[in-house]
Write a structure and sequence with these properties.
By secondary structure, the chain is an alpha+beta fold. It has two domains: about 80 residues; about 180 residues, Reverse transcriptase/Diguanylate cyclase domain (Alpha-Beta Plaits, 2-Layer Sandwich). Helix content is about 60%, strand content about 15%. The strands form two sheets. It has a five-stranded mixed sheet with strand order 2-3-1-6-7, sandwiched between helices. It has a two-stranded antiparallel sheet with strand order 4-5. Helix 1 runs antiparallel to helix 2, helix 4 crosses helix 5 and helix 5 runs antiparallel to helix 6. The longest helix has about 45 residues. It is an enzyme of class 2 (transferase). It holds the Pfam family GGDEF.
Length: about 280
């Protein structure tokens, strides 16, 4: 049962319990006043009081349930507004990072042999600035929406899809190691390369570059992002419209990989290369 339905059911049962308690109080009051229920007046008073009580309580209960459902709908909309990217409707940067950190933290509570492999993918649209400059921001928005829709449709429901900013997206593939991640990355790349945007007489085919890191042990999200982003840089530098993934092993290998990741100027790779 869905948690929200379970909570609503419990609330309704609580209201029914309060109503039953009030009926019990009425019964005791009538019994005390008439000294029992032998007299017709006692029975008539009891029936009248109970009917009035139930007739008053039922509308109040229905009103309370309706208000709660309306508030839950409003809260759900506010939550979506706070966690979703307004244009593409995937997770925004903050929500994606928090969700990914939570998923990674849960890995730490498992035994070493039970830890599932995961893969973090960073996806960046190729030549996006050129699309914006030549065809306008409306076409750029169309491209971002088309890419996001393709990403969302191409992964499982429990995988995380987010927009990190600009033309950069991210996916956390749960229970997917290096081989699975590599297959998914290529499938995404090929699917997006089938997309075209722009006016009818100036259609442009889209492409993306992907960088990924597969891991089995809990690693800080920022470190994983740095490694995946370094692989994205390599994919961009070797021609774009391709994917580059690596796999983390031990903690020492993680430290070595972080030490080799681009720094300084190279850390600004998305902005510099997107402008080319």
């Amino acid at each position: 049962m869905h948690p929200s339905i379970d909570h609503l059911t419990r609330f309704c049962l609580e209201l029914l319990g309060l109503t039953a308690t009030m009926v019990g109080v009425v019964v005791l009051a009538v019994h005390y006043h008439f000294g029992g229920f032998a007299a017709p007046e006692a029975r008539g008073s009891l029936v009248f009081c109970v009917l009035v009580l139930l007739g008053s309580a039922l509308p109040l209960q229905l009103y309370a349930v309706a208000r709660i459902m309306r508030l839950r709908t409003q809260n759900r909309r506010l939550f979506e507004f706070a966690t979703r990217d307004g244009l593409t409707q995937v997770l925004n940067r903050t929500a994606f990072k928090k969700s990914a950190e939570l998923a990674i933290a849960r890995m730490g509570g498992l035994r070493s042999g039970d830890m599932p492999a995961c893969t973090l993918l960073i996806i960046d649209a190729d030549h996006f600035k050129r699309i914006n400059d030549r065809l306008g921001h409306h076409t750029g928005d169309e491209a971002l929406t088309a890419i996001a829709d393709t990403l969302r449709r191409s992964v499982r429901q429990n995988d995380l899809v987010g927009r990190l900013g600009g033309e950069e997206f991210a996916i956390l593939l749960r229970n997917a190691g290096y081989e699975e991640g590599r297959i998914v990355a290529e499938r995404l790349r090929l699917a997006i390369h089938q997309l075209e945007v722009g006016p009818a007489n100036r259609r442009v085919r889209l492409s993306v570059s992907l960088g990924g890191i597969a891991f089995r042990n809990p690693v800080a999200f920022n470190a994983l992002y740095k490694l995946a982003d370094a692989n994205l840089y390599r994919a961009k530098a070797t021609g774009r419209n391709r994917s580059t993934l690596t796999q983390l092993g031990s903690l020492d290998q993680t430290r070595a990989a972080l030490a080799e990741a681009p720094r300084g100027e190279d850390a600004e790779r998305p902005q510099r290369i997107a402008a080319v």
